[in-house]
Design goal:
The chain has 2 domains: 2-143, OB fold (Dihydrolipoamide Acetyltransferase, E2P), CATH 2.40.50.140; 165-327 and 369-483, BirA Bifunctional Protein, domain 2, CATH 3.30.930.10. Helix content is 32%, strand content 23%. The chain contains 15 helices and 20 strands. Strand 10 and strand 11 (222-226) form a beta hairpin. The termini are close together. The model has no long low-confidence stretch (mean pLDDT 92).
Length: 496
Amino acid sequence: MEESNVIVQRRQKAEELIRQGVKLYANDFKPSHRIIDLLPAPTIDNHPAHDAPLAGGTKVVAGRVMALRKFGKAAFLKLQDGSGKIQIHIRRDDVGETTFALFKKIDIGDIVAFSGPLFRTKTGEVTIEATFMKLLTKSLRPLPEKFHGLTDIETRYRQRYVDLIVNSEVRDTFHKRVEIIRMIRDFLSNRGFLEVETPMMQAIAGGATAKPFKTYHNALSLDLYLRVAPELYLKRLLVGGIERVFEINRSFRNEGLSTRHNPEFTMLEFYQAYATYDDLMELTEEMIPWIAVEVCGSMQISYQGREVDLAPPWRRYTMDEALQQIGGLSPEILRDFPALKKMALDQGVELQPQAGIGKVKTELFALLVEEKLVNPTFITAYPTEVSPLARKNEVDPEFTDRFELFITGRELGNAFSELNDPVDQRQRLEQQIADRGEDEKIFPVIDEDFIRALEYGMPPAAGAGIGIDRLVMLLTDSPSIRDVILFPHLRSEKKT
């Protein structure tokens, strides 16, 4: 009710300004400076040096009013643009009666332009002494109360535009996200990888086991699916002779919402010909610590109160080793399928009747081991049963040449030496479809064009996928995936 009253008052004020001939939404003004360029460079303790000289001349800035203290014939206010905040001092004697009368109708949240010289207050704060003011945009809704900010989590996600205005740490998170993605591009491009874009809408939802979003193309009279992964198209490019390739883009999975899952998310996938999954372990182990140093200043970081050491070399376990050494299972039970399956069912794991020992091991790993993998850990030797696109191990074909990377108890990456035998690939996909079960609503069709591409010959290769959102969560100490996605998906807003 209080906010509604403020909105009514602001609308009335806006109508009054219109009657006085004031433009509420001007588009004829350009600032000459960003605020950050007017402030002294930070010292080692991150505070501006009070004795740093100030640039002379008139400074012209524009931004949003974030705080306001009026003293009759003068006032101080905080102005914020996309680069920072600066204090403005405005006096009636400097700007004149007409401008000062307009200023008295300015509210917190309005976007306003000021110009004037710089000076320091008695406390040393850099301030613009306003000689000119112009209203650029009238705000009709109040910003959250300054001492508490926008704290309701759902409101922050739903009204991200307000969240960005009032929470500087949120703006910093998304600046870091952009930098992380830029560094990934630089890292891979400097190693000869070519960045590409592959279709978002696909006739067959392949490349991962997940429920897709379905749509329809009218002109082609064709059902299409938002991609669950770009993998099969990137492998087609390996066939075509692009031997190092990567894509950073969206994938879509019509599944649940959680602090780790959003139906629309950003993935990095990269593929290298004449490489194995061991090569991509080394590359990943080099890339992520380098990014961490650039973003966080160190390979030793804190995530949600837990210390994480990203310095290589990283730990490596086979899945069976992890189940024994971390999960506490005996070697004997890992070989006893009926006993292992009973253990999983007793602990509440849901299994399809056709699930084999590989599926059971994978489910027990998720239950007993994952949360304990705080420092970076590569888990290798995944069962062939749960790895339909990975190359079988030459020594033991029950397992694949695959790794998953875990940090802070969650999977961050998945990679394997690629299966390039078209006969084996067809058999594996057919078996995957047969094992899914009727109640799993996943489109059960083999991508015949992908098989045809393999029949032309794909060079030996390895490929990896890394969740960009989860990497950003890690490097910005963000507890939820929604904290690192500008506009996460939410349930419909309740009407009041």
